[in-house]
């Protein structure tokens, strides 16, 4: 059942379009830097962007930094919000439930599919950045944020590890989107509501008076992936991020299951 669902999701034109846009962003960054003849001054612009012209490996990390606030969450929202509501909108949900698999298994498969998409989307950005960075800029030993140097292979592994962390950081949002998708038969509404939650979290995270809420916002620790480029790697914020995402997955995954298993499916 899972392979079939993955095939359906990744063959959809909108899914392919989302992945294409995500891949194009780090490529566009590299082209813009190449044409400009140099990157921004240290500390200016998105994180890691000032390092791209010195080492193309950083294009993957710069791409993740640029896409994480909006584009990656939007992709996750599109797939998660459409998971159940899309089937109901097309009138295929009832036929899926006729199978002996049951509602719980169907929801689990949908959730796993969304999770896999989140990881694939983040890795798409990283691979596109690595390819564009290697094609347009010199690559070699990677200077970490701590000032030490690691080999090209180790630096590449860390960049891909950062992409994996980013993909896992989207799981809390994916669980929220899946839950909202069980509440409506309008996929556009589910997608819009999921994106709105990201925007609200981002706004709240910038208000100092609400600092007590910041550690609990699903977006607060998203940029912790940069700590993988330190020596030694700082795992504290990465662990906080992943534990928080797990909490969101448990809470909203359970809510989605409770709603979906009792939902009166009419379409």
A few lines on this structure:
By secondary structure, the protein is mostly helical. Helices cover 67% and strands 1% of the residues.
Description:
Strand 1 and strand 2 (149-150) form a beta hairpin. Helix 2 packs parallel to helix 7 (102-136), helix 3 (58-67) crosses helix 7 and helix 9 (171-183) packs parallel to helix 11. The chain is globular and about 60 Å long. The protein is mainly α. The protein has a two-stranded antiparallel ribbon. The longest helix is centred in the middle third of the chain and has 35 residues, at 102-136. The mean pLDDT is 90. It is built from eleven helices and two strands; from the N terminus they run αααααααββαααα. The chain has one domain (2-262). The protein has helices at 2-11, 13-36, 58-67, 71-83, 85-90, 93-98, 102-136, 152-169, 171-183, 187-204, 236-262, and strands spanning 142-143, 149-150.
**Helical segment count:** 11
| Principal-axis shape | globular
Question: Strand count, sense and closure of the main sheet?
Answer: 2 strands, antiparallel
Low-confidence residue ranges: none
Q: Estimate the helix proportion, in percent.
A: 55-70%
Strand content: under 5%
- Structural class, from helix and strand content? mainly alpha
Strand order of the largest sheet: 1-2
Quote the average pLDDT: 90
Radius of gyration, in Å, reads 20 Å
List how many beta strands DSSP finds.
2
The succession of helices and strands, N to C, reads HHHHHHHEEHHHH
